[in-house]
Design brief:
3-stranded antiparallel β-sheet
């Protein structure tokens, strides 16, 4: 069932998304950024009681966390004025037999029209598959939101307009195989074997704020210092594993932050592996 519009439409939408297993969290009114004072992506949940608290304020927008948390990958077709036209790039991919299937209302891709005239294609991720975020890597104007990412979802509004469902199928179809192969997170053969640390307690607010600050340092690292910054912050954050998040969650957050850097994915993967391996051995000998 498509989300209903009521006095608190974002809350209604969030609870509907939760029923599908999609973790969501509040965004600021009329904006695409997290609500001030929140923990952003770290707040994403499917827990109805937590959603009730998070969306108590009327007029909020809603973000859906992508990747393995929600078993969801979203392809974003952009057509911003002055930028690349993702729809033209999409036609180019189709000529190579790389298409984004839409299915039908019973089993298909969920599709959202964005205020800028773009389109979001939602697909289900197979169990155990992790995909990386990317911006104009598949083709100019085509972004992918997966591990450590999020999308603005209906009924969110911005000054440019509202996000609206064009198709909201009963069952979400799986992502096409070519997309999975193009965006799969590659794990080196000699990757460090971490102790499978899981979250053992609720994340303290101070830890959440610290994580947010450290991830922002990675995202804004100047050219020439990006690898060093990623290594330093990953090593530092490893000591907090178990305080409300596990190694998998930390790995996803680091990948999401590093996706905004102009670094080869293999280099990012290697740097994170080395830093977490050393950091975890120090914290959990």
């Amino acid at each position: 069932m498509e989300p209903n519009a009521t006095r608190h439409p974002a809350f209604d939408a969030a609870t509907t998304y939760a029923a599908r297993g999609w973790a969501s969290y509040p965004l600021a009114p009329n904006a695409k950024v997290p609500l001030r004072g929140s923990h952003g992506l770290l707040d994403a949940t499917t827990d109805p009681d937590v959603l009730t608290r998070l969306f108590a304020q009327p007029g909020l927008n809603v973000g859906i966390r992508t990747g393995s948390v929600s078993k969801l990958v979203v392809v974003d077709i952009d057509c911003h004025l002055g930028g690349p036209n993702g729809f033209e790039a999409l036609d180019g991919l189709a000529q190579l037999d790389l298409q984004l299937p839409t299915g039908d209302p019973d089993c298909g891709s969920a599709m959202v029209a964005t205020p800028s005239g773009g389109l979001h294609f939602y697909y289900a991720l197979p169990e155990g598959v992790k995909l990386k975020n990317s911006a104009s890597v598949l083709a100019p104007g085509i972004d992918v939101r997966a591990e450590g990412g999020y999308v603005v979802a209906p009924p969110s509004q911005t000054p440019a307009g509202s996000y609206q469902w064009k198709q909201y199928p009963h069952r979400l179809m799986a992502a096409p195989q070519w997309l999975l192969e193009s965006c799969k997170i590659e794990i080196p053969a000699q990757r460090h074997q971490y102790r499978p640390m899981r979250a053992t307690e609720e994340m303290p607010p101070t830890v959440a704020e610290m994580i947010k600050d450290r991830l922002e340092r990675i995202e804004h690292a100047p050219r020439g210092q990006r690898n060093h910054t990623l290594n330093r912050e990953a090593f530092y954050l490893a000591q907090f594993v178990g305080r409300g998040f596990g190694v998998d969650e930390l790995d996803a957050m680091l990948l999401g932050a590093a996706a905004k850097l102009d670094m080869p994915h293999r280099e990012v993967r290697r740097t994170i592996d080395n830093a977490l391996g050393k950091g975890l051995r120090r914290s959990f000998p």
